[in-house]
Design brief:
This protein has 260 residues and is α/β, with parallel strands linked by helices. The chain is built from ten helices and ten strands. Strand 2, helix 1 (27-41) and strand 3 (48-53) form a beta-alpha-beta unit.
């Protein structure tokens, strides 16, 4: 399979599984990712997702080999159909109601960067190299980088990656805000498991609402974001998890959240 799914406690791990192709994204991988998301979103016991790559790459972008096998007259339409599907997949990962952690383990370029941009938390191995890369071949981002990267790291830093096509060490992207933490290569899986476990211990409903607020804060005015925060708080006030959290605080114990 082009992507594997396995459970590690309350976390679901998605491993891109085309190591010979540096986990490049093709149509079959997109279909598999949608199927995995269907499964994990419907499973209340999954409280966090971790996305990583098999082998020496996280993801080296799109694999358009299938396009070159087509007659010339069909290639443009096929490419656009693929980009629309890829963009929809990235947006679905971004909108996943459960926190998504990227464990970036190697080369991460083009579509790989676009996948990272859709994750909520980014851990990276010391040897990871991250960039856009489209400019090297006269191409454009097609699955969200032009919209998400400037929002994440600012226009000037984004333009550096867009225009040069450079792959930067993960450590250089911590201060920029793209990567949360860099760890030694051998420690990446354990570090991701630790973060996933910490996230999974929180209220699933609370994290879902917090994620919605965080994502929505990028749109509209500050005043609109503040009003949205109050409105979400008002709806959340009657939830079991909110009241369980308050009771646990008062009773000096760990809360037992249920996601409702």
């Amino acid at each position: 399979m082009d992507a594997l799914l396995d459970r590690r406690g309350p976390a679901a791990w998605i491993t891109l599984n085309r190591p010979r192709e540096l986990n490049a994204i093709g149509p079959a991988m997109l279909d598999r990712l949608h199927a995995i998301l269907d499964e994990v979103e419907a499973d209340p016991s999954v409280r966090c997702l971790v996305v990583t790559g098999c082998g020496r790459a996280f993801c080296a972008g799109a694999d358009l080999a299938f396009v070159h096998a087509m007659p010339m007259a069909e290639r443009d339409a096929a490419t656009m159909a693929f980009l629309r599907r890829a963009s929809a997949t990235m947006s679905r990962i971004e909108a996943c109601p459960k926190p998504v952690v990227a464990a970036v383990n190697g080369v991460t370029v083009a579509g790989g960067l676009e996948l990272v941009l859709c994750c909520d938390v980014v851990l990276a191995a010391e040897t990871a190299r991250i960039g856009d890369g489209h400019a090297k071949y006269g191409l454009l981002p097609g699955a969200g980088a032009s919209a998400r990267l400037p929002r994440r790291i600012g226009v000037s830093r984004a333009n550096w990656l867009f225009f040069t096509g450079a792959l930067l060490p993960a450590a250089e992207l911590v201060a920029a805000g793209l990567v949360n933490k860099v760890v030694p290569d051998a420690e990446l899986p354990a570090a991701a498991e630790l973060v996933a476990a910490e996230i999974a211990a929180r209220s699933p409903l609370g994290l879902r609402r917090m994620k919605e607020l965080s994502r929505a804060s990028l749109d509209g005015t500050l005043e609109e974001a503040l009003e949205r925060e109050l409105a979400v708080n008002a709806g959340y006030a009657a939830s079991f998890d909110r009241n369980e959290g308050l009771a646990a605080f008062a009773e000096r114990r760990e809360p037992a959240f249920q996601g409702r």
